[in-house]
Amino acid sequence: MSIEPIFGGNMLEQKPVQKIQHFSDWVIWAGIVLSLILGALYIVSASPLNSKSVRLPDIDSSIFIYFGYGIRAGMTPYVDMVDHKGPLLWTIEWLGLTLGNGNMTGIWALEWIMMFVDLMLLFLCARFFIKNRAVCLLAVGISITPIVHLYQGGNFSEEWSLPFILLSLYIFIDYFNNNKLTLFRIIACGACMGAVLCI
After folding, report:
1. Rg of the chain (C-alpha set)
2. Segments in the chain below pLDDT 70
3. Of 51, 97, 105, 136, which is least surrounded by CB within 10 A?
4. Could you tell me the pTM of the whole model?
5. H-only helix segments in the chain
6. d(CA 141, CA 198)
7. How far, in Å, CA of 49 to CA of 51, rounded?
């Protein structure tokens, strides 16, 4: 009787070198994910929404936060509060304030998650052109510097749109490089476009 591991193949029949290679791949990917999480934390640490900040949110950000508080208080967007931004942005603000129990730290936590997704998608897009994972990670690390400068405290509509744009970019690059296109990917690109239009 043989025991089949989750990832396929019989571990008892694998050679020690294959086991080490499999383990080292996991360690490398764990290091990449940890690096991207720390990179995202570095970017969002500039946000005035984190609990350690003494700065006030920017004008646009404070309007978005106001809409989140308004929805939590039972106000209706576009009836009781008016702005030209889309409903997905107000939903994100409401969700962040709800997760933070009325505190802006919940929005900051969502920013951290979205920034990690952004960096991961940048890394995966870079992998289409550069096969060396360390060089891809370096490229993403270099891109963090202008992101921090352009971030300007965060909680902008552009920041919330970026993961949807990068996911579409990843799908398009994969299509042009590998001719990989499925109905699910077409629907995902359409959903990403709809999300960006609703922010």
Report:
1. 21
2. 1-23, 54
3. 51
4. 0.82
5. 16-44, 59-72, 87-99, 105-127, 133-151, 157-178, 183-197
6. 30
7. 6
